[in-house]
Amino acid sequence: MKVCVRNPTGKVKAAQRAVAEKFGNEEDKTTGGTYLLEQRYLKPLLTMEREIRDFFTANTTNLDGKLLISSNNYFRVQEFVSRAIPEFDRLKSDFLTRWETEIRPKSMEALHNQKDAQGENLYDKLTPSQKKWFTRSSEDMAQYYSFTFKEDNIPSNNLKGVSQDIINGVRARIKHEENILMSEANTQLRGRLREVVLKLKEKMVKYNQDGTSRMHESIIDNIKSLVEVLPDMIIGHDPDLVELCNETKVLCGWDVEILKGNENARKEAKKTAEDILSKMSF
């Protein structure tokens, strides 16, 4: 999966100088950056980009940059992709349609209108390469906004014309690599589960004891959203992880308002969380 929404930035010497003077450091220690395009024009695409990244973070396992999708979760991912790609393309098309007539000139105007104490505008402070962005056509800009999803499968069954010894060796190697990936992927899922359960346990301990009485619905909602998809994200066969997930569902029944107002309820939720955590081995 690759998703890209680009808003070019540029260093502005005046901004670098101002920050350096304020904090007493060297100018090259600060970026002094500014967006060249008005962010409001990119907001729909940026929102879509965040939705895509959040979905794949929640529904896939990332090992060394490679996204692993459990066969049980395949259709959920495919359903999302089939909806997200045309929606992203629609938003991209809208942006590119407005680029030359609205977005480019108004972004340039905004930079011209931003002036320093001496009356010099931000646009004139840009380098030639930064100003070049405003000479690009909509066709040129298209390359900076994309969402692609490609499935990479190991062709372990496509080995015609190869000796049986080589076939067996290749399949054994692939099986060994799959077992390693399965173990690493499911360990990562255990880590996700442990993280949300541990946060609940710690909140039950610290609530009203460290000077704070804040407890948000997310402390339970994060557990709910994870245990809903986690069984389908398991790679291969891992009954222990399935059982841990089922036990964790007990925590989803707690009401945050009850936990806020009842110390005994917090103690019980903490005890349940501790029991679950004690069964997680890495």
Describe the structure.
By secondary structure, the chain is mainly alpha-helical. It folds into two domains: 2-148, no CATH class; 164-278, no CATH class. The chain has ten helices and six strands, in the order ββαβαββαααβααααα. It has helices at 13-23, 39-59, 74-113, 128-131, 138-141, 164-206, 218-233, 239-248, 256-261, 263-278, and strands at 2-5, 9-11, 33-35, 61-63, 66-68, 145-148. The strands form three sheets. A two-stranded antiparallel ribbon has the order 1-6. It has a two-stranded antiparallel sheet with strand order 2-3. A two-stranded antiparallel ribbon has the order 4-5. Strand 4 (61-63) and strand 5 (66-68) form a beta hairpin. Helix 6 (164-206) packs antiparallel against helix 10. The longest helix has 43 residues, at 164-206. The radius of gyration is 26 Å and the shape is extended.
The major beta sheet can be summarized as: 2 strands, antiparallel
Q: What is the structural class?
A: mainly alpha
What is the global morphology?
extended
How far apart lie the N and C ends? 28 Å
Give me the number of helical elements.
10
Encode the helix/strand succession as letters: EEHEHEEHHHEHHHHH
Percentage of residues assigned to helices: 55-70%
Low-confidence segments, given as residue ranges, are: 153-162
Q: How many structural domains in the coordinates?
A: 2
How do the strands of the widest beta sheet line up side by side? 1-6
Estimated radius of gyration: 26 Å
Report the β-strand fraction as a percent range. Answer: 5-15%
Number of strands: 6
* Mean pLDDT score: 81
